[in-house]
What does this fold into?
Amino acid sequence: MAHGLFVDGVWRSQWHDTGPGGAFNFTEPRFRNWVTPDGGAGPSGAGGFRAERGRYHLYVSLACPWAHRAVIMRVLKHLEDVVSMSVVEPVMGDQGWEFGDGPGATPDTVNGKRRLGEIYLLADPRYSGRVSVPTLWDKERRTIVNNESPEIMRMFNSAFAGLAADSPDYYPPALRAEIDRVNALVFSGVNAGVYRAGFATGQAAYDEAFRDLFATLDRLEERLSRQRYLCGERLTEADWRLFTTILRFDAVYHGHFKCNLRRIVDYPNLSSYLRELYQVPGVAGTVNMDHIKRHYYMSMPTINPNRIVPGGPALDFAAPHDRGRFARA
It folds into this structure.
């Protein structure tokens, strides 16, 4: 997410767009090329981006749920030494995401820029659109490959096979239709749902988003009462796409975005599932609650004009879970 945009290469500070009735509108990512094993074209965009060790760099925010998905997949697929990474500061400035040396953040070690927006202008000096994370950069061609998180997740899942240690396939062929179906439900109702509620500027738009969000969470709670993961008995990308939203829910979306009918901790299955995913080796190290809370509460003065960061809630994602009652593939 970014609270400004470029128009023909010129930055404009601007809150997010809303449509009729104050409904929040998502904007489509501009860069949709794919890294592939042989450099051939992927499902969208142009070819020429062959998977190579050290060629690509990932720009992320630890606060952003969309970027967090890519960070998790990079860890799960053991790509830390294959794809380098820079982390922006949690609080947005007037010019959007910025690099720095605050706790948990890093400088831009590849291009030496101060702001992520400057990376977008390297790719296209007359770029028009939002500056978002994650952003996958090609050091060789000096351009942005892709800034759509689900697509970066899938590249990390499969394109770099052979360049890192063996790891599970999170988009296995036998489950792809079901994964796609669940992803559509989760995206509309939960991933985007919290933003549609939080960024709504009209009561009716908020009410509709609120109802859809909790109806979807209720469906997911019931689903997880019958099976260990969203698509059965093995972890898939669908689980990680849900995880990064529900991880932030009680600390941010419940209060800041007025998603306050229930908390995730009030759902026995969702909360236990959340703890299990957090405890998957490597995942806890990708979670930075300080970045998450400071970003949301300090970067959105339209919603929180005094920029006060709440002290709570107390969350223990490392507490025991009961998901072991289900078989695991």
